[in-house]
Amino acid sequence: MAPPNTNQTGTGTPANTNTIAPAGSNSTPVIIPVPALTISNGMFSTLANDSKFANLSLSKDNWPKWSQKIKQVTEMSELDEYLLGTVLEPDVTVDAASYRNWKGNNKKLIGFLKAFVEDSEISFLATDDAKIAWDNLVNRHEKQGPITQVRLIQEVLSISYAKDVSAWSATTDRIRDLCDRIFAQTVPTKDVLFMVAMLSALERDADHIRSEMTSYYISNKTADSKALSERVEQEIVYKTRRENGSDVALTMQTNGRRNQKLSTKVCTNPICPNPNGHLGTDCWEKGGAMEGK
């Protein structure tokens, strides 16, 4: 049985960019055969001779440089069009040879990509469509959430040119690379800059909060600065109570009734709606240690 053709219009005509419409509205579209492409030796040697090129790795944050170089070398064999998905799957019932070539070209290109990634990236290439494989890598490396941008911005702002001018070129390259990586995560927003400033301000005297919230953002990629602001406010409440000598309990008079003890425990779960009276380790709310238990 022939595989289903997913590239058709409502009229039943293949919606394939591998066709040309001759002059005249009533002319039958001419199908352009899809040739079998090869991975040239030049593609491998170009990457091997680039001392700054390294296998793709999330821990190295080298996606901008890696993806740019891969696009350049795939252009050498016209395989870049498969990464972008501009060569659509031919209808096997119309042109079986083009269909086989299209499948083969995708397989070759994915195999080429696998040769230049770390093992941790291989699972994202587990497909027979090069565009899907490429999109998987884009989503993995360009959509990591605001904390990645925050970390990269902090890193680039910490760089200084040394007294020895012989190192200045390398420093400039480093700054350029970091800026590429920052903007690969989408354009930084006001909220991202606010988070950069807050986390930097916490580092000297409240590094435990900075570390805690950095871990939180890694696990909650869509969270914004609100969670960090609330965590800082909670710390203010906690320390104010402690400094007022309320380590044991706070007391209050309520409508003439006997004094009631108020716990000084404050939940560290940044999204807990009622943070007073318990710790993060006892929090049953979403994000708390006891969530779902």
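Next protein, fold it too.
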Amino acid sequence: MKPWYLDDASNRQMKVLKFFNPCYTQRISKGEASRLITCIFMVPGNQELWMKYVFVTGDTTQDSPDLQPFDLAHLRTVVVPDGWKPHGSKIKKKSGFERELVLEMAADILKDGVPFDDPVPTIEYPSKGFCFTGKFKFGSRSQCQDAVTRMGGCAHDNVTLETNYLIVGGDLSPAWAHESYGTKIEKALVYKLDGRPIALLAEEDWAATVKNASC
């Protein structure tokens, strides 16, 4: 049985892809859609433009892959009122509210599929920070962390600004965002969208580097 993230992209993911590329019609998996959307939202201004679309149209549903009618030229001139947030947002009014809001909106869309880095980057160990989340075939969390430290890396219990790699173990649940390990993935996504150098890697890609080093 194929992993859920290889299922077809969700309606909400397709809306984002069509919003930034009106000619987009390709069938794509949830995981690949999340990778593309991550790249889109890392471009300055794209997160804010999507927020303006949601503000103007109120479109936050999964009902259809079709966008609500909008005028892009008008959308660019829209000023979102201070304190506005879409239904379901958990962001509180505080310093940096708008930036936190757009990051939350982007990360929420990415919950439809974990955007593992593709291609897998070169994994370096000396002085690099590693964090682990999920259940691992490699061994216990402590065994994974020990493998990192033996190779010169730093093992982090939580995702921080010094974390370079988040390693996700085992088979993810489609509801990963609601599982205990989902908070680390979500935090890594927010850092990634904010332009920080953190990679999201599947267990097998990380474990292969440990195995190769021991050969």
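About the second fold: The chain has a mean pLDDT of 86.
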